[in-house]
Design goal:
The protein is mainly alpha-helical. The chain has one domain. 76% of the residues lie in helices and 0% in strands. It is built from 3 helices and no strands. The longest helix is centred in the first third of the chain and has 22 residues. The protein is flat.
Amino acid sequence: MNDIHFALAEELEKLAAVYRAKSQIKTDEISIQDINFVLSEKMKKGKISAIKAL
C-alpha cells in the first residue's frame, strides 16, 4: 500500500475509535449538532413534511 492508503486507514481507525467511545456513553441529552444532522438529512431526502411534523 502506498502512503495515502495508510493515511486513510489511520483516519478510519480514529473515527471508529470515536464511535466506539460514543456508543459506550449512555446519555439522554441531544445536542444541537444531532438535531441539525437529522434535519439536514431529511431535507436532502426531500422530506420537508416530516420536518414540519417535528
